Amino acid sequence: MKRSFGKYRETGERLTMLTAYDAAFASLLEKAGIDCILVGDSLGNVFQGVSSTREVTVGQMVYHTRSVRAGAPNAFVWTDMPHLSYETPETAVANARRLIEAGADGVKLEGYRKGIVRALTDAGIPVCAHIGLLPQTAENFKVRGKEEDEQIRLKTEAAALQEEGAVMTVIECTSSALAAEITESLDIPTIGIGAGNGCDGQVLVVNDMLGLKEEKGAKFVRRYADLCGVIIEAVHSFVRDVRSGDYPSQNESYR
Ligand code: KIV
Does the predicted TM-score (pTM) go above 0.85? Predict the structure, then answer.
């Protein structure tokens, strides 16, 4: 699916993005009218239960991209390029092609390395950049861009990523003021996560915003539901009903 994202800068319409890793969730997000689905490498944390995104492989992203595309045939699907899968222009293009063949409309990658976005763009692959906190290489999860030199670096990188052909950029965990300033300086839309209200859109990890884990999330996460409470209660009821002999009833059994 090809789509231009320029209108979000031009009209001020806000862009919405959530992660999904499987067909069931992707189908619900599409039905609910989300603009973009991100097959995030956050699947390492929320799906595989490991503490970092660094072990996620291209093969795993291919598998999850196929599942998401099966559930959401019409949504614009971005897939994260995993850690170390875009070290050179050649490996970046080869790995991105696998993700596109699996059903992604474009790829997202973290940080700026000269020539990588240009090579992907020249190969006809839409790129979403990602600046600020970069989970694949981060040593801590503190707010980025507090010092002036880092602010300058982030602004310079955002401009370079746009110049190489990125069609949008995620900004993760910066002050609202810095994200707004970067947004104003670009022609492409910005998608914030923990970067305040001055971006052109917002992205969240779907498990976080649906309350699928019991621990409280980061400050920027708004919990729109408490699905872990709902699920735990439903499973308790199932366990109770099976143990008491209440389930299955005659109506739930074949004659
Ligand atoms: O992997 C991911 O889910 C992401 C979002 C946090 C933007 O990159």
Answer: yes
